[in-house]
Structure formats: C-alpha cells, structure tokens
Amino acid sequence: MIKTKIIATIGPACHKEETIKTMIDHGVDIFRLNFSHGTFQEHAEFLKTINAARSRHQHTTAVMGDLCGPKIRTGKIQPEGQILQPGDEITIVPGEQLGTPKHFGTNYQFFTKDAEIGHRIFIDDGQISLRVINQHDDQTICQVVVGGPLFSHKGINLPDSQVSMPSITEQDWLWVDWAIEHGLDFLALSFVRSDTEIKQLKTYLEKAGADINLVAKIEKPQAIEHLESIVQASDAILVARGDLGVEMDLAEVPIIQKHITRICRHLGKPVIVATQMLQSMIEIPTATRAEVSDVANAIMDSTDAVMLSGETAVGKYPLDAAQTIQRIARVTEAYLEQHKHPPARTATSPDLQQTAAIAYSVDQLVDDIDARLVAVWSQTGTTARLLSKQRINAPILAFSSDKRNCQQMSLHYGVISRCHPVPQSLDEFIRLVEDLIISRNWVQAGEKIVIVLGQSFGAAGTTNAIMVHTVPPDKKGNNASGNTIS
User: Fold this and answer.
1) What is the pLDDT of residues 120-149, one digit of tens each?
2) According to CATH, what is the number of the domain 82-157?
3) Active-site entry in 5, 54, 193, 217
4) Neighbours of 256 (CB within 10 A)
5) Where in the chain are the domains?
6) Out of 4, 49, 60, 275, which one is annotated catalytic?
7) pLDDT tens digit string along 74-110?
8) CATH superfamily ID and name for 5-69+167-334
9) For residue 72, which of 37, 47, 109 has the smallest C-alpha distance?
10) What is the average pLDDT across 440-458?
11) 350-485 belongs to which CATH class?
12) 217 is catalytic
C-alpha cells in the first residue's frame, strides 16, 4: 500500500475499462474528468466506463470534475504563425473578428478596461510577452517584450490585472448541473481569487442537495493573497503549477507550493500538487531524474495527492506513468517513516478541537507502541481527514455507511476507506476490522492496532475514545484485549 493518493486524468489514451482497472491496480485513487475538453456525452461515456471498472475492484475510488473557468484567447489571425519580434507594436481589440498578427481580437469584452498601461500580457503560456504602452477607444497598444510565433485561439494571461470576469462561466454552470446529475465526488473550480467564488458554488450545490466536495485551484496571484480564507472555505486545494508559472515569477512556484501545502496541513485540508509531474512520459516510457525528484519533494512537502494530466489523458504510456508515481511514493514514504518530524497540531474550528486533539494523540501512540494500523469509524470523513493530516506512520482504515463519504476519503493521505452498514456494537466493529485486515494480510496475529471510535457509531461529531487492540490468533477470539483511552 502507498499513502500518497494518485489522481489520473481520463482521456483518449486511457478510456477503456481494462486500462482503468489496471490503473486502479497501480494505485490510482481518483479519476479526473477535464471539462475543458470533450462534450457532455463523451464525459458520460468516460464515467460509465470508470464505474464499470471500479465495480470490479475492491479499492475505493472517486471521480473529480474539473471546471474550465473563463479563458481569454486570441481571435482568428491570418497569416498563422508569423513571428512577433521584440520591440514590435501590436494592437489588441475586444471581438473575434479576423485579424492580423499586428492587429487582432480577443474573446474578452472587457480586455481594454482590465489591461492597463504598464501591465504585462502573456500569450500561449508565456511564449510571447507583451507590455501595454497605450490605450484609446477599445484598442490596447502593446510592445513585444519576448517574441515568438502567433496563432489563433491561443490563451492570454493578464498577471497584473484585476480581471472582471466571474470565475464560473455560463458553460461552467452547465457542467456543474451535469456533475450533480451524475453524482461526481469532487468539483475543481478554476480562476479562484477569493473565498467568495467557493461560497457561491457551495451555496448552489447545497440548494441542489448535492454532496460534492469543492477543490479550489490556486492559479492566480490574487488567490495567494487570500490563501488562508480560500483554504478555510474549500474542501481541498489544488496547486495548479502551470498557470501559477505563467501568472507569477516561475522561480517563486516551488516556494508557493511549499507555502500552500504547509497552510493546508496546518488547517487540516487535503492538498493536490498538479501539472507536469511526469511530463516527459507523454512521449517516452521513463521519467526524468528531475521529475522523480519533483514528485518525491511534493510528497515530502506533505501533499495528499499528486495529479497526472496529459500523462494519462493523451500520453503514450498512461499505465507506466501511474506505476512510476506509485513507485516513487513507496520509496519516499519509507524514507519519511524513518525520518519523521515531530507531530504538528492541526488548527480547527472549536467544534473539531476535541477530534483534532485525539488525532494528535493517536499519532504519538502509534509511534510509542509500534501499532500496525489505525481503524476508525468516520461517518462524515472528518475524523479520517484529521488523522490523515497527522501523517501517522501507519495506514488509516476508515469506515462509513455513506458511500459518497467513503469515495471522498479517497483524497486523504494514508486513508483506506470502506463502506459498510453501521455496526450495532463495539464487538461487531472490532470483528469487522479484524476480518478485513487479516484477510488482506495487513496485520498479523499478536500485532497491535489503534481503534478510534465515538459513543455512537454512525453519528457525526461523537469521536471521543482511543482503544489499543491486540489482534488475537483466532480472528473470532476474545476481543477483550483492547484497552480504552478516553
């Protein structure tokens, strides 16, 4: 088992049922549907195949939809590919009318309003860099700073501008409704600049009765300015390093990544590191040394999950990419278990302070008695999440009777989730745990496990006790070997 969670993007390279099942074998926990590409029908077919594959697998997996968000693009340009030279002056105007390399349109109607004199403009992920030198009427006059070939419908970034457009476009709202209808577990929101967008979407989901967790994608400088409030409002955070590297100084991205993961661990929220984790494996079957170091460092930074994008969606070696991540995680986690830092307390709301304190105590207890596993009944997934953020040196086996909550626990580092009817007694729960861990050879007779429980199974917010339990030679043996610490 590895504790780091793997997210794989579904696409033409891995859309077959057998491929998806094999990806689960290789440690994939969450499948991402990228709504920037494909139609409703195509993604419905992807989801149907995912569901068929995971119904044949014992490992619990989840599905995340990724909203496209607003995209500012160049209009139609003729001739295509003409080279812009440093020092050239070009004009950009709102509207998608046919343009030339020196005078072209954009699909963003408020472009002139938002791009002020002195602001930088990046085209095609920063391949071309411009600076605004003048404006009049609806025309934005720019000077080329870094030149390159210009093509139609390429992305435009405005890193210095307060972009007026909302984070959720009309098309995004259609995808939100689709995600609700199809029962997705997570939705990733692009273009987040404050907690306002998160709260807006959460309110919409609550009114629809949808229990979908929201993942805030950190890709804008404004999001860094409001990071703590965004983390508090979200269910999870995604470090979108590609867009961050365009919007901000590329040299700052590793520092920002560490800052985000540190804040998420402190506040008890899951965090995903994404973009170009194994980019070279789109074309070749092995990762570079730099990529391996990058993945390992993300795990050392306390990320909960790493995400594969093009590597699995359109790459030539999707299964190799998943297996490579799994292998890096296994080696890195073994190192971390031998060189563990002192446990850190998680900052939580007052209603979760007791649960957070129990999670902190479990971490210390596992080390002191060399427990092989932690078992918890976590109806809503909250206790499992707080245990996960402690980076405990043992797997966390989390049960719930709520299938959706079990699937959403697939994002938590070190958590193995299982859906099961609510047990009627402590003895029944202990038998359930023993049956599973012995059948899987996760724990041997005579070894200790830690059980975290509450005064009422199946009720949220009741976690109040820790039990040390020794697995008996006979899994149906005497359960009185446990000692409760409350």
Assistant:
1) 999 998 899 999 999 988 999 999 999 999
2) 2.40.33.10
3) 217
4) 20
5) 5-69+167-334, 82-157, 350-485
6) 275
7) 999 999 999 999 999 999 999 988 999 999 999 999 9
8) Phosphoenolpyruvate-binding domains (3.20.20.60)
9) 109
10) 88
11) alpha beta
12) yes
